[in-house]
Amino acid sequence: MTQWLRLWHGTATDPKWRTIARRSGQPIPNVLGVFVLMLENASASPVRGVLDNWNDEVAADALGIEASDVT
Question: What global pTM score does this model have?
Answer without folding.
Answer: 0.88
